[in-house]
Amino acid sequence: MSFTEIPEVPMRRNRSELAVPGSQTRFFEKAISSETDVIFLDLEDAVAPDEKPRARRNVIEALNDLDWSGKTVSVRINGLDTPFMYRDVVDVVEQAGQFLDLIMIPKVGCASDVYALDVLVSQIQNARGQSNRIGFELIIESALGVRNADSIAAASKRNESLHFGVADYAASVQARTTNIGGPAPGYVVLTDPDDAGSRDMHWGDIWHYPLTRMVVAARAAGLRPIDGPFGDFSDPEGYMAAARRAAALGCEGKWAIHPSQIGLANTAMGPSEDELDQARRILTAMEEAEQAGMGAATLDGKLIDYASIRQAKAIVARS
Ligand code: GLV
Ligand code: MG
Q1: Exposed/middle/buried for 44, CB within 10 Å: 0-12, 13-18, 19+?
Q2: Pocket lining: 211 vs ligand 1, CB cutoff 6 Å
Q3: Is the CB of 168 under 6 A from ligand 1?
Q4: Which ligand is nearest to the CA of 175?
Q5: DSSP three-state, residue 76
Q6: For FRET with 216, which of 51, 161, 189, 291 sits at 20 to 30 Å CA-CA?
Q7: Model confidence pLDDT, tens digit, residues 42-97
Q8: CA separation, residue 169 to residues 114, 125, 179, 207, 272 (Å)
Q9: Hey, which of 20, 104, 180 would you mutate to test ligand 1's pocket, going by the most ligand atoms within 8 Å of its Cβ?
């Protein structure tokens, strides 16, 4: 390990994160009784500009009146470049900050964006005598955000997680797709022709780089990396493939933009019984190896060593 230690943020179950438009009050109680780990009440892109004040009022009322215990609750405010953001923060934190676990900040481009929000939230909480900690979820969803992901992740003690906002990211880099979080048929590799002249076509994953970049920035700052939306809610297999890829890269959770995606996220982000079983077997095998004075061992014909212990412990801790 490096001499530089990375303090981990408070542990929080974040396998699934359900997006609920602040303008759609009929979905609030359904969200609370769902299996989702985190709910974010959206004041940003799921709410039309004229509806913003009403959505804000709905969210404040619901935070005060409904029982959110058992869920982590977050509010996605509008971006710093809009005329809505300041009132989102002032009204929601002043009037309901004591019921809020997290604030989700969209389109973060640089560390000062986060710093500014930290100042504002801290001032309001101090003035109101609110002693609860409101954490930050930061959406990395622009070329600027990806470029500055490291300093963004380290910008505030309130930071808890980075989220990959695939739709806005695609718009920001002008990627040739409008399929939110899905594959892009233009991004393929053709194999060389075989003897008969035929060629295979393999689809690549156009989200691999920004997602990996975000995972590294998050983990290097002790934050949770969370994968964002998958727009086609009639394609559970496609969702599952995307979620499993994100989990394989190190993400702890994925958004659900429809209730049908909650169970998929919980399953994909697991860890599964098989993964847990294997992790526990590794820990036992390494314990036995250590007692026999060895630093490495063989399990099922494969090498395991102290790095395997760290991998296995990470899986067990997440369960
Ligand atoms: C989420 O905010 C996204 O842009 O994908
Ligand atoms: Mg977005």
Answers
A1: buried
A2: no
A3: yes
A4: 1
A5: strand
A6: 189
A7: 999 999 999 999 999 999 999 999 999 999 999 999 999 999 999 999 999 999 99
A8: 18, 32, 12, 9, 30
A9: 180
Cα 69 to averaged position of ligand 1 atoms, centre (Å): 27
Residues in the chain: 319
Q: For residues 95 and 64, is the Cβ–Cβ distance under 8 A?
A: yes
Q: What whole-number distance in Å separates Cα of residue 239 and Cα of residue 231? A: 9
Q: Which atom of ligand 1 is nearest to the CA of 228?
A: 5
The model's pLDDT over 175-222, given as tens digits with 9 standing for 90+, comes to 999 899 999 999 999 999 999 999 999 999 999 999 999 999 999 999
Exposed (0-12), middle (13-18) or buried (19+): which is 64, by Cβ within 10 Å? exposed
Label residues 2-16 b or e (16+ Cβ within 10 Å = b): eeeeeeebeebebbb
Angle at 238 between CA 233 and CA 241, to 5 degrees: 130
**Distance between CA 39 and CA 41 in Å, rounded?**
6
Q: Which of 128-132, 164-168, 192-196, 270-274 is least confident?
A: 270-274
pLDDT of res. 269: 96
Q: Is the pTM of this model over 0.90?
A: yes
What's residue 249's pLDDT? 97
Closest to 250 (Cα-Cα) out of 220, 283, 280, 279: 220
Q: Please, which residues have CB within 8 angstroms of residue 17's CB and are 6 or more apart in sequence?
A: 36, 37, 38, 39, 40, 74, 163, 226, 253, 254, 255, 256, 265
Say whether pLDDT at 1 is over 80.
Answer: no
